[in-house]
Write a structure and sequence with these properties.
Strand order of the largest sheet: 1-2
Structural class: mainly alpha
Number of domains: 1
Distance between the termini: 58 Å
């Protein structure tokens, strides 16, 4: 078993874009991939500006929603690159935690191993689901729908709506552009899923550190024959570990705060676009196809928001459990001075560890519910207007 919580798929994605530490050509890989993304995004927005027609608002919003999603992935990768030094510190802390676990008893190693296996399974499932099913299926469902709407049109349709400064229907240029668009969709979807899997891995790692801390807090005074100096030393060590957990969680929050803010802002805009597309197509022919492709895309972007909110809620719940573990320990067998030390641990644990969206709102299931209610309200208003 690899002594790390980072799965192979997540590590491969970080190496692919040049963010993994120690790469010889990391900056070159980053520059080349981001340049290719900028070119693709430019052609997508060129199509939007050249086909800006209020009478065909459904086609306009359809193309805009795809462009905004690719744009979101582009800015997420930029934010991760700007915070790469912080990310390296997080990886170093994780390696130190694993080194500490390997030097201790097997029960602690079993807890960390379970966390590592769980994070790897989640990473593989989410990357496959998001890349292969949600984003790719939504793009090519749109393509098939466009072909059905243009049966009498002799022009071939590319998977993504882009405006090129040259004739793109001639072979073999058309086939090369189709392959390039396919790689573009799969790569950006897989990398966005990798970023989501990374925050799951980091939160699972810090949660297992909290579980180990709670386990040691509950067992701190089970040995009645232990010396008072030994108890004080154990408490001091547990406080140091608690502080390491707090610093690690703060680093996760700093790393993902801007990414979460961009996620929710983009989700709000894209959900509005999808809602407008659905409502405007209800009275037209082919409404079933539009509902199907919009539903697939809606599930894809909603899944990302749910992941961020769920891990934020999970981290907050885990952090509050530290105070419960201190209270459930045998503190009544300690001296008043030792109990006062534990009291500070309870007070500190009452301040939840959380992840925020740009220091504006906490990521929680309550926040996710609020976003879903807002999108449903917007759709009902549009339906009433039409």
């Amino acid at each position: 078993m690899r002594a790390t919580s980072i799965s192979t798929s997540v590590e491969f994605g970080l190496r692919f874009i040049g963010i993994w530490p120690g790469l010889s050509y990391g900056t070159f890989n980053w520059f080349m991939y981001m340049t290719s993304l900028m070119i693709m995004i430019y052609f997508e927005y060129a199509y939007i500006f050249n086909h800006f027609d209020i009478n065909d608002i459904s086609n306009l919003i359809d193309a805009l929603s795809i462009a905004l999603s690719c744009n979101l992935g582009f800015f997420k990768l930029i934010s991760l690159w700007l915070h790469r030094r912080l990310f390296y510190d997080i990886l170093l802390t994780m390696d130190e935690d694993w080194g500490d676990v390997l030097a201790r008893d097997r029960s602690v190693l079993r807890i960390m191993s379970h966390n590592a296996n769980l994070s790897r399974r989640y990473s593989n499932v989410l990357i496959s689901l998001t890349a292969a099913v949600c984003y790719t299926a939504s793009s090519f469902t749109r393509h098939s729908a466009d072909l059905d709407e243009n049966l009498n049109d002799s022009l071939r349709m590319l998977p993504l709506k882009m405006q090129f400064p040259f004739e793109a229907n001639a072979s073999p240029l058309f086939e090369l552009l189709a392959v390039a668009q396919f790689l573009h969709v799969v790569s950006i979807a897989a990398l966005v899923a990798m970023i989501n899997c990374l925050i799951i891995t980091l939160v699972l790692h810090v949660s297992r550190q909290i579980d180990i801390l709670r386990r040691e807090l509950l067992a701190i005074c089970y040995d009645q024959d232990s010396q008072r100096d030994s108890i004080v030393a154990d408490i001091r060590l547990l406080i140091i570990r608690h502080q390491r957990i707090i610093i690690f969680a703060d680093n996760i929050e700093e790393l993902y705060s801007d990414i979460a803010l961009m996620q929710f802002l983009s989700n709000t805009i894209v959900i509005c676009c999808i809602s407008f597309t659905i409502i405007s197509s209800l009275t037209k022919n082919g409404a079933t196809v539009v509902l199907l492709k919009s539903a697939i895309f809606y599930v894809a972007i909603t899944l990302e928001a749910f992941i961020f909110c769920f891990v934020g809620e999970y981290l907050s719940a885990k952090s509050k459990s530290i105070g419960d573990a201190v209270y459930e320990s045998l503190w009544y067998n300690m001296t008043p001075a030792e109990c006062r030390i534990l009291l500070f641990v309870i007070l500190r644990s009452q301040k939840r560890l959380t992840i925020t969206a740009g220091n504006i709102m906490d990521l929680s299931l309550e926040g996710f519910t609020a976003v879903m209610k807002a999108s449903a309200s917007y759709m009902s208003v549009l339906h009433a207007m039409y």
